[in-house]
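Appendix B. Extra example for self-study. Work through it before the problem class; the solution is given directly after the inputs so you can check yourself.
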Amino acid sequence: MRRIVSGLDTRSAEFLENRAHNRRLAAELKATQEKARRVRPQRDLDRLARQGKMFVRDRIEALLDPGTPFLELSTLAAGLAYDGEVPGASIVSGIGIVSGREVIIHADDASVKGGAWYPLSVKKIVRTLDIAIENCLPVVHLCDSAGGFLPLQAGVFGDRYLAGRIFRNQAILSKMGIPQVAIVLGHCTAGGAYVPALSEYNVIVKGTGAIFLGGPPLVKAATGEENTVDELGGADVHTRISGVADYPASNEKHAIAIAREIVGTFPKRAKAAIDWAAPEPPAYDPDELYGIIPRDIKVQFDMREVIARIVDGSRFHEYQPAYGTTLVCGFAHLWGCPIGILANNGVLFNDSALKGAHFMQLCDQKRIPIVFLQNITGYMIGRDYEHRGITKDGAKMIMAVAGLEVPKITVMVNGSFGAGNYGMSGRAFDPRFLFMWPQSQIAVMGAEQASNVLAEIKVRQLARQGETLDAAGIAAIREPILEEYRRQSSAYYSTSELWDDGILDPVDTRNALAVTLSAALNAPGGDPHYGVFRM
Amino acid sequence: MRHAFDIGGTETEVWLSRDGAGYRLHGDAGEARIGLAAGRLDVDGVGEPVLVVLDGETIHVHLGGANYVLRHKDPARRFADEDDGGAGDAARAPMPGTVVRIDVAVGQPVALGDPLLVIESMKLETTIRAWHGGTVAALHVAPGQSFDRDALLVTLSAGGG
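Solution. Structure tokens for the complete assembly:
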């Protein structure tokens, strides 16, 4: 494999301006994440202190092996929802190492609305457990939730992927033989009671931990029976009488120490057999990624420059370098792991779509995980392309990406518009993980095109009623549409709605891919097989 | 979770991280690149001979002409100990029965494993023994008395023997 020869001029005005712009975006991301992680109203922190509870971040730190990587997922979930009052959707989720085992953590954050589950909290927990199922990762649940947020109960309860899915996923994990440990650090009420009950192992803290289907007030209202929390569902009740909980713990640290011991008894799963190479940093400085991404999403750039700053030694074996050149395909290593890469270098034409479908099947046969680097405006339109069957060529790519057995991981490097999102392994195609870069955008079409179309429809409606609009009138219609469209296309909106697993600072991409590839290799997938490709 | 060691009566927390092919030792006092192989301890590239003998959780180290005794503090035991003692520190009846004999008096110091009282249930005598060293804080039953399952039998407090 050869080192990519970079054509980047790191002294050009363009590079420097891009770098300043993107560094500012990365700094904004860091600040926003830090706020979501740690900034809480004083009264909530006071309440935790009064209850003798640790902050969720300290619990996770105590749980993890010190000095090992932890990849937090969906830090900014619900960031643009609920008036910004539910940072992280009141849940912390991430992949880390506990007692030498790779696990995924679901932790309720009791410093946000008492850890109440909002609709997006449920979505985040379900996603966390989906990741566990897809990648065969044991789960540690840190339970401390007030239960479903009642004013929004319609958004947490009835449908297929709402709260019931959490418990269904727990049962499926158990059936697959993937163990779960729950630590009960606060109240687990109603549905929340099933999280520890459906875990193979659970630990409950004396005094603060409790599990019940109905809490004391509900029991009193229903039957008149009066109970203290401890009498109804405290540590003693469940570890000595009911058998709902397994291990009593004197305090949170004790509970975490017991849980670490339990995880230490899990057999280590064998990862997929792949040809590991000795890891090597990229030959080009990943910091230069900031100078590559243009300030304007419409400006084209060479995705090989991005690949060169992510993969080992910047080495890349490019497949079909002269054919279908708007899709760059090839092999590389990332932290020693062989990967296939599909990266957009422009709109997808017939030949690029065919090349992509072909290359995906190559990777599937070689059992090599695939990384998709998206910067895609869509498939080419127009008479020539329709006559050549651009739709059936796009369909081949979608058939391939949906049928892949090897793990796939998607990074939205810049734009993700239209059907290009599908062919390049968008969320609906079950990539094991999907990340956004801070300036990236995702929408069915670009903001300006969409707002022009919508404004045009409005103008015609008014014209039919005999009204005409001047330029200012049209702008007055167009601008709010554009503004709302931009907001809903932003990476921050996507991540708020959990369309992805988090926004990455571009320089962190290499490490995030390493952690997720390692997790994905726990479940290498079956033998390659596909549906019918329309030829 | 960090490892804790008792070194000369002082609790010290440390943890290891990977550093290339080797390791880095971290603690509140700072960090150092370390290696331990073939009877040599390397700290930031400076090596000296070391002899380490493990005896359960006790570690004997001979280094630089001196002997050190370290104790690894098991995390589960370390944190459980904090809350030991108090009203919850009691033995309860595992099943209904009667008290055959009481071997201790309130205020008496006891060591781990000392017999406290003997109960009889289902034609089987069971000796309740001290589950840690301490003092008998209270006896909740008398000889000959019958009791139900889960009845309080005896309470210990920390300290004393």
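Self-check: The longest strand of chain B covers residues 10-19. If your reasoning did not lead you there, revisit section 3.
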